[in-house]
Amino acid sequence: MKNVVLKIEKNERVGNDIYLMRLTGDTSDIKNPGEFINITVPGYYLRRPISVHRFSNNYVEILYKVLGNGTLSMSTFPVGMELDCLVGLGNGFDITKAKKPLLVAGGIGIAPMFALIDEFNKLGIKPTLVYGSQCKGDLVLVEELSKITDLRLTTDNGECGFHGHPVKYLSENQIDFDYYYSCGPLRMLEGLANYSHNGCLSLEARMGCGFGACMGCTIKTTNGNKRVCKEGPVFEADEVIF
Ligand SMILES: Cc1cc2nc3c(=O)[nH]c(=O)nc-3n(C[C@H](O)[C@H](O)[C@H](O)COP(=O)(O)OP(=O)(O)OC[C@H]3O[C@@H](n4cnc5c(N)ncnc54)[C@H](O)[C@@H]3O)c2cc1C
Ligand code: FES
Prior knowledge:
The chain is of the alpha/beta class. The protein has helices at residues 69-74, 113-122, 142-148, 166-172, 186-195, and strands at 2-15, 18-24, 36-39, 48-51, 54-55, 59-65, 82-89, 101-106, 128-133, 150-155, 162-163, 179-183, 199-202, 218-221, 224-227, 234-236. Helix 4 packs parallel to helix 5 (186-195). Residues 36, 48-51, 62-65, 67-71, 108, 111, 204-207, 233 line the site of flavin-adenine dinucleotide (FAD).
């Protein structure tokens, strides 16, 4: 983990209340897709944890949805503004687990999938991605995703792609995979864990410190209590107790 000051290079709206921010600076502590960064939002005591969307040694991109006042404030940040961030947080996804990966994303859970897809693409693998949202307007960056994945879209209201949520899609369609990677609403992750244990779930929790010190993000697992920010946010599907 490193405490760094990063400069906003881009902060653009890409969908319904969804923004893509590119931050430049020393991001060399980010090692794996699925990690997160913790951002100080001026005026707020607690940092806001946001997944790494894409990264290299000198930039990190985040994809965030405006939910409350902190993320609303972030959406107004101008290019050139500097942000105090903790980078290199969390365990991230283990790409060595899959030869035939299946990615499952619900809503803003699509955010960490891009860095994961980039890693698989570098290995010559085009992963299958099931990406669901409530309605068409909540699906973002679809054109790009259709180039870098075998993309299956779902919407709860049937406006676009399969009518239903991602787990319903999986139960009604045969997909050849050996391990899945997922991120999205807790209800989707629970359904996915019931559908198959051969995969991992990226969880969210309300966080205090973000680096393992306060125990505020502890969850129960079959291997005892674990901190989402330190031992997670990525957990094996069969270890999470819902
Ligand atoms: C490891 C991790 C990775 C995350 N990655 C992303 C991401 O890539 N993109 C993104 O848009 N969001 C992500 N989040 C969620 C993000 O941290 C919250 O949406 C954000 O902190 C809300 O701040 P706020 O001040 O806008 O809202 P607040 O005013 O703090 O809360 C507004 C609403 O959001 C809910 N909320 C706040 N924090 C969380 C949380 N951590 N989990 C679930 N609900 C929450 C509150 O209960 C409340 O209903 C992630 C969270 C974690 C823990
Ligand atoms: S947020 Fe403090 S231990 Fe996880």
